[in-house]
Amino acid sequence: MVNRSDVATEAPGKFPTVAGEPDHLNPEYLIKMGMLVAGIAHNMNGPLTGMLGNIDLMKMMHPELKDTLEKVGSIGMRLREDIRVMMSKTVAEGRRTASEMDIADVVNTELKFYQADQRLKHETNLILNISEDIPKFKAVRGDFWQAFSALLTNAIEAMGDKGGKTLIITLEQQGDEILLIVQDNGIGMDSETMAQAFDPLFTTKETKLEGRYPATLAMGLGLTHAKLLMDDLGVAIELQSEPKKGTTATMRIPYQEVEALYRRETR
């Protein structure tokens, strides 16, 4: 499992990093990239607004083209929503101040962001079991976004290009905990592999996954980074898996303790 000695000592206010972690997985680098992406998205909004405005004008000038122009306009509106999701995600990941957080909104927004991945959008049966009235709690939204993203990415990649892919996302409250569960029917893991799943640089994807989707992102650090983020908050990430049957990853969030931790840090 992850050893805290693997984490480099940083000055106060700095982010801990895993020894040997590539720059593109360092949280400070992610924040800089997030700011860049947010800037690009902001710049895209201007021309898009102009295009949508001209479409309305053209509908008045050429009523015979109304149906075609409305189709173009609907595409533009979908693009505007994609830009909004991208900007909200990147801004949140770069914000290190704690605020009241709706974990259900984190899940739904991340899933919208992942609709750009055709494996999830077109090839996977996505089942959502999101309970109502999940308690909100004070936290750094970006930490939970990154942890959930790591679990989601691993699930998608574990299913490769097999047929009949199913991904089940469950969010529910059990007593003093909020459970965020990501369940896939991918290649699964034996007990030996599962024991190493959180180890830095450990990955089976390059050797076990075949097909159209090479494991270009399988650096063996996604789960490690997620665990480091959640360990500091007292959030457990548990894995259950069986070869050829899939994996279930569960985040156990003691939301009241997480909020109390952030409140102590901000005093």
Q: TL;DR of this structure?
A:
By secondary structure, the protein is an alpha+beta fold. It is built from nine helices and seven strands; from the N terminus they run H-H-E-H-H-E-E-H-E-E-H-H-H-E-E-H.
Number of domains: 2
The shape is: globular
CATH class of the largest domain: Alpha Beta
Sheet of most strands: 5 strands, mixed
Please tell me how large the radius of gyration is: 21 Å
Please trace the helix and strand order, writing H or E for each element: HHEHHEEHEEHHHEEH
Quick one: how many beta strands? 7
Question: What value does the average pLDDT take?
Answer: 77
Low-confidence stretches: 1-25, 206-220
CATH architecture of the largest domain: 2-Layer Sandwich
Strand content: 15-25%
CATH-defined fold name of the largest domain = Heat Shock Protein 90
How does the helix and strand content classify structurally?
alpha+beta
- Biggest sheet strand order reads 2-4-5-7-6
End-to-end Cα distance, whole Å, is 33 Å
Kindly state the percentage of residues in helix. Answer: 40-55%
Pick out its properties.
267 residues; Heat Shock Protein 90; 2 domains; five-stranded mixed β-sheet; two-stranded antiparallel ribbon; 9 helices; 7 strands
Describe this structure as you would to a colleague.
The protein is an alpha+beta fold. It has 2 domains: 70 residues; 167 residues, Heat Shock Protein 90 (2-Layer Sandwich). 49% of the residues lie in helices and 17% in strands. It is built from 9 helices and 7 strands, in the order H-H-E-H-H-E-E-H-E-E-H-H-H-E-E-H. A 5-stranded mixed β-sheet has the order 2-4-5-7-6. The longest helix is centred in the first third of the chain and has 35 residues.
